[in-house]
Amino acid sequence: MSIFKDIVTAIRGGASEAGEAIVDSQALRILEQEIRDAENGIREAKSSLSKLKASEISLRKDLNIVNEDIADYTASARSALEKGNRELAVEIASKIQDLTVSKTDLDERSSMLDEQVNRIHKVIVERQKQVEKNKIELQKAKTYRDLQKTQKTIAGALPSNDSSAKRVQRALDRVQKKQSDFDNKQEADQWLSDLENGSQLDDKIKAAGIGEQDSSANSILDEIEASMKK
Predict the structure, then answer these.
(1) Packing angle between helix 2-12 and helix 17-82, nearest 10 degrees?
(2) What are the pLDDT digits (tens) for 19-46?
(3) Would you state the pLDDT for residue 179?
(4) Which of 6, 80, 158, 167 could lock onto 88 through a cystine, CB 3.0 to 4.6 A?
(5) How far apart are CA 31 and CA 24, in angstroms?
(6) What is 44-72 written as a DSSP string?
(7) Which residue spans adopt a coiled-coil conformation according to this UniProt entry (predicted)?
């Protein structure tokens, strides 16, 4: 938007990065004020335009009345001539002449007002379009500003170079190694506890098939048959 660019160009100069941020903020505030002023001006212009339009409407109504009067008096003049009353017809014609002068004046004033109303309305419409464009540009500028702030925040929260990234990775590796060492120690402690409680010997006995009871269907039948033979 031209207003925004002009403001930034005029103020910025050789400002530093920090100074540019201040300038950008000021430029946005100036642009916001420009938009508010323009909207106030448009409201005032619309109010004035409404009054002008009311005057034009009033003139048009007066003109219609005069045209109706001229038509009525013209019909009366014809009737007077048809009846041979020329003197009355002349008097009526004089009235028609006065009304015609009024008609010309009203017509000129009404046409002038109509032209002015249309011209002002066109200017207002164009100005409204420009204000809407300015609002869009302002919103874009604010979005860009917020984006820059977010990018700076993210950049400040992350390692800025390779050495920092490597230090972070080494720290993570140390944490993972400590966790792995802890898990290994827990497993060793469990092994020692099982050994002391004789659980390993029980495991070996089970693995050798000693002491297990055969609960299969065949062993049950064998026991039944043996008891029957006794």
Answers:
(1) 140
(2) 555 556 788 888 889 999 999 999 999 9
(3) 78
(4) 80
(5) 10
(6) HHHHHHHHHHHHHHHHHHHHHHHHHHHHH
(7) 28-55
Q: Please tell me the distance from the alpha carbon of residue 41 to that of residue 33, in angstroms, as a whole number.
A: 12
Class of domain 2-158: mainly alpha
Instruction: Return the ∠ at Cα 84 (arms to 83 and 86), rounded to 5°.
Output: 120
Distance (Å, rounded) from C-alpha 218 to C-alpha 225? 11
Report the pLDDT value the prediction gives residue 11, as an integer from 0 to 100: 47
SS (H, E, C) the chain: CHHHHHHHHHHHCCCCHHHHHHHHHHHHHHHHHHHHHHHHHHHHHHHHHHHHHHHHHHHHHHHHHHHHHHHHHHHHHHHHHHCCCHHHHHHHHHHHHHHHHHHHHHHHHHHHHHHHHHHHHHHHHHHHHHHHHHHHHHHHHHHHHHHHHHHHHHHHHCCCCHHHHHHHHHHHHHHHHHHHHHHHHHHHHHHHHHHHCCHHHHHHHHHCCCCCCCCCHHHHHHHHHHHHHC
Integer distance in angstroms from the first to the last C-alpha of the chain?
113
Q: Is the pLDDT of residue 158 over 80?
A: no
Going from the C-alpha of 25 to that of each of 32, 50, 73, 217, the distances in angstroms are: 11, 38, 72, 90
Helix (H, G, I), strand (E, B) or coil at 21: helix
Instruction: Please write the tens of the pLDDT for every residue from 76-121.
Output: 999 999 999 999 999 999 999 999 999 999 999 999 999 999 999 9
